Amino acid sequence: MKLALTRLEQRILDSIKSYHLQYNEMPTIRGIGKIVDISSPGTIGRYVNSLVSKGYLQRDKRTWRGLKLISFDNGEYLPLMGRIAAGKPIEAISGENELNPNALLLGENRYALQVIGDSMIDAGIRDRDWVIIHSQESADDGQIVVALIDHTETTLKYLHHLKNDIVELRPANTALSPMRYISDRILIQGVLVAQMRTY
Amino acid sequence: MKLALTRLEQRILDSIKSYHLQYNEMPTIRGIGKIVDISSPGTIGRYVNSLVSKGYLQRDKRTWRGLKLISFDNGEYLPLMGRIAAGKPIEAISGENELNPNALLLGENRYALQVIGDSMIDAGIRDRDWVIIHSQESADDGQIVVALIDHTETTLKYLHHLKNDIVELRPANTALSPMRYISDRILIQGVLVAQMRTY
DNA sequence: ATAAAAGAGTACATAAGGAGTACATTATGA
DNA sequence: TCATAATGTACTCCTTATGTACTCTTTTAT
Questions:
Q1: Burial class for B182, CB neighbours closer than 10 Å (0-12, 13-18, 19+)
Q2: Residue whose Cα is closest to the C1' of D11
Q3: Residues of B in contact with A155 (CB under 8 A)
Q4: Per residue in A82-136, pLDDT tens?
Q5: From CA A198, how far away is CA B151, in angstroms rounded?
Q6: What band does B2 get if pLDDT is binned at 50, 70 and 90?
Q7: Whole-model pTM?
Q8: How far, in whole angstroms, is CA B91 from its chain's centroid?
Q9: By the number of CB atoms within 10 A of the CB, which of A192, B18, B127, B181 ranks highest?
């Protein structure tokens, strides 16, 4: 159970995280103060104390830079470290400490499918990926849909409506060609809403 | 069983939710008042109370911004329909009929990062994707790793060891070139173990 | 016409945010 | 090694933001 943080506590925790991500060492009390623009070390110290007592930090009392970010918990959440961009330090995401995949991926009328094949590889969907589909019977052009063709075969493709009741299903793979069908041969079964992969 | 809400209660609940989505923290009583254009904190307090007693909110009584949204749990699992391959019917996966993303993605010493940029796009990792990293200090050739360069910048790349203590970090993007470093400039922070994306 | 819902306004105790100083301890560099 | 600067910590004092409990009035719906 995570205890709630006040605004300043959150700000201080964020500052500590990004400092640590960037310099790979913990900041000093006054260093934190500089980041959050608070001149009094006593004030920072007080809030660091409450972060410690709330379980967000540990402290090695005898030395400078003796703070420690709490080690990973492997409960319901993933610790969320921040954003990674090539050529930059990892940037903390303010206020966000953890990520719950289920909260992100689950939802009403959703189901999972495993993708076989590389027909959508240019959309970043690869063989053996899991896709999460929201069950619905229509979709907009450009969306990735699960389509049932002639009540027999199923496929995951980009959807586009052409003139004269023609539906085009476009793969995301330059080696494959789009397919066109009279619209009543195609049944939309759902729309891609999320995706995951394990390595 | 959800109790019915009056219009104002509904409006207040909506405001709280959107405030929380936007700022990632709960609003104050007066803050809610500003959103719904009601000047009296007492009035807001009264309706927040009734939201609490109707079970739409929880409250941490002793503190500011101490409201909590009741988490409406979507259930633990996604129905698992099977495998989808272009040109075939969906094939059931024998013995499996549900998928729990958390079970797939969580684990000890794992954390999440959000990827910014397209440097790994040919590996199916796109801008804004979430990646899940297993924290470890070494990795094998060909694995995708989080690497800290010169203690300042961080990046997600394929790892390869060359001769003479040279480490090569390869992007998965034909527009970008591999970078080589003396091995002591590079610190491996973790290895990619999973990934997810929402649309 | 009546009750429920919506709203104003005020007062008050207290949580949160912040400054500043003093002092013992720890790094750091010459 | 030793002097000095940097640091963590414990205080005190202060201001502002906030939740809450009231009372009273106005609007809305049945």
A1: exposed
A2: A42
A3: 84-87
A4: 899 887 778 877 777 788 898 889 888 899 999 999 999 999 999 999 999 999 9
A5: 28
A6: low
A7: 0.79
A8: 30
A9: A192
